[in-house]
UniProtKB/TrEMBL annotation:
This is Histidine ammonia-lyase. GO terms for molecular function: histidine ammonia-lyase activity. PANTHER family: HISTIDINE AMMONIA-LYASE (PTHR10362). Belongs to the PAL/histidase family. The keyword Disulfide bond does not apply. Its main location: cytoplasm. Coiled coil: none annotated.
Length: 517
């Protein structure tokens, strides 16, 4: 893993890139507000302070919030208004959300503050910058966001820490009182000024952060799916003729073309494939799970590309309500609605479930003597005495069933809130949470296919695997022994999961093929 300890990502030079989000969120890279960002925030703050002094009510500055926006708040109570907002909205419940998700959320909120459209003081944004750089991560909970008016509860737990309240995890992962941990790290909390509480919590940053992280994970897993599919095609004595570029060009989806090119590269030079090209094979066509692998993995790639387009637009956005426009107007808007992000999060969950479903079908073919073309039942050493990979496929099937449930869209649901003021919500946070679970499931499903296909490739000896698939098998064999009598299988599955999730399986293939698409 690269060392990000000395890396700094500038905030305020334009939209963040996907890699920058991942480096800060997942790998702990530091951040730095640029001078331009500080100047933009200071300029918009002046306009907010003008409105705060005006007798005319301005939402979020001199009024209550949501359904309580009709009350004009006396100037003497406005500091209390911001504190009360954050404290009351920090109402999450359930398990803690992963640190990388919270850091992504913090980074993206800071990025919006840096645009100068929120009216937050530079000193307040600097506290958020300081928390990220000290690797102090506020505790955020699983439940609380409806994905409209942004991820209110999750962001409120972060805003609570900016005020020096609540709890955080320090750089060592220890649970600490926020004020104590900040003092030790030299980060000074702030007394929130008018509008700042609202500006800190009114964004879609949680769901967007999870989308960016999910895209990074999914792109690796789709390459892995091509690797495991190639291993299965090879070990099941399938044909690679269907991956011919001329055939793929008849249906010019870019993802399909990329997946087919990967399969050709991975299978190149296979002695197993060559062994049944002599006319002795009587099969006319392979099963869909082999023959249509590029069509399914390719469609998932194209879905990921669409989701990435949405994420790029969101990274270039300034989501808050109200916002300070370039001409000085402060206007209410609906840009905090999470529908654009929620839709693609749900779309990705569908693609993840389908890629996993096809992988499980390939695994199942290995275990059935009627379909595995000469391999022992369940790939067992002594079928009947040994069960081989019988129950590994059960585990895989159980995960696939769960993935189908997780593919049910969250964004089609809406529960009215705030006395019907917020009468339609996106549920984008929920869509993001289930996608993260789905990606973990896909990694495990592909790991079982890899484990099973590797065993089948070994059982085809003395026929030689393709150099690329052989490299993947060799990488697995560093932690998992080859075919033999039944062993404790769960640790071997976990070894394969690590090989998949770390990218080591793809890296092994790429030592032969070069970079896969």
């Amino acid at each position: 893993m690269p060392d990000y300890d000395n890396e700094v990502v500038d905030i305020g030079t334009g939209p963040l890139g996907f890699d920058e989000v991942v480096r800060v969120a997942r790998h702990g890279a530091a951040v730095r507000l640029t001078d331009d960002a500080v100047a933009a925030m200071a300029a918009s703050r002046g306009r907010v302070e003008e409105l705060a002094e005006s007798p005319t009510p301005a939402y979020g500055i001199s009024t209550g919030f949501g359904a309580l926006a009709t009350r004009h708040i006396d100037p003497a109570l406005r500091a209390k208004l911001q504190k009360s907002l954050v404290r009351s909205h920090a109402a999450g419940s359930g398990p803690e959300v992963e640190a990388e998700v919270v850091r992504a959320l913090m980074l993206l909120r800071l990025n919006t503050l840096a645009t100068g459209h929120t009216g937050v003081r530079p000193t307040t944004a600097k506290v958020l910058e300081g928390l990220l750089n000290a690797r102090l991560t506020p505790v955020v909970h699983e439940y609380g966001s409806l994905g409209c008016s942004g991820d209110l509860a999750p962001l409120s737990h972060v805003a609570l820490a900016i005020m020096g309240e609540g709890v955080v995890r320090d750089a060592d992962g220890e649970l600490r009182d926020a004020a104590e941990a900040m003092k030790q790290a030299g980060v000074e909390p702030v007394e929130l000024a008018p509008k700042e509480g609202l500006a800190l919590i009114n964004g879609t940053d949680g769901m967007l952060g999870m989308l960016v992280l999910a895209l990074a994970d999914l792109r690796l897993l789709l390459k892995t799916a091509d690797v495991t599919a190639a291993m299965s095609v090879e070990a099941l004595l399938g044909t690679d003729a269907v991956f011919d570029p001329a055939l793929q060009a008849l249906r010019p989806h870019p993802g399909q073309a990329a997946s087919a090119a990967n399969l050709r590269a991975i299978l190149r030079g296979s002695g197993i494939m060559a062994s049944h090209r002599d006319g002795s094979c009587t099969r006319v066509q392979d099963a869909y799970s082999l023959r249509c692998a590029p069509q399914v993995a390719g469609a998932a790639r194209d879905t990921a590309d669409h989701a990435a387009t949405v994420a790029e637009r969101e990274l270039a956005s300034a989501v808050d309500n109200p916002v300070v426009l370039a001409d000085g107007r402060v206007e209410s808007n609906g840009n905090f609605h999470g529908a654009p992000v929620g839709y693609v999060l749900d779309f990705l969950a569908i693609a993840v479930a389908d890629v996993a479903s096809m992988s499980e079908r390939r695994t199942d073919r290995f275990l059935d003597v009627a379909r595995n073309h000469g391999l022992p039942a369940f790939l067992a050493d002594d079928p009947g005495v040994d069960s081989g990979h019988m129950i590994a496929q059960y585990t895989q099937a159980a995960i696939v069933s769960e993935l189908k449930r997780l593919a049910v869209p969250a964004s089609v649901d809406s529960i009215p809130s705030s006395a019907m003021q917020e009468d339609h919500v996106s549920m984008g946070w929920s869509a993001a949470r289930k996608l993260r679970r789905a990606l973990d499931g896909l990694a495990r499903v592909l790991a079982v296919e890899l484990l099973t296909a590797a065993r089948a490739i070994d059982l085809r000896a003395p026929l030689l695997a393709a150099p690329a698939t052989g490299a993947v098998v060799a990488a697995l064999r560093e932690s998992v022994k080859g075919p033999g009598p039944d062993r404790f299988l769960a640790p071997e599955i976990e070894s394969a999961v690590r090989l998949v999730a770390s990218g080591a399986a793809v890296a092994a293939a790429e030592t032969v093929t070069g970079p896969l698409a």
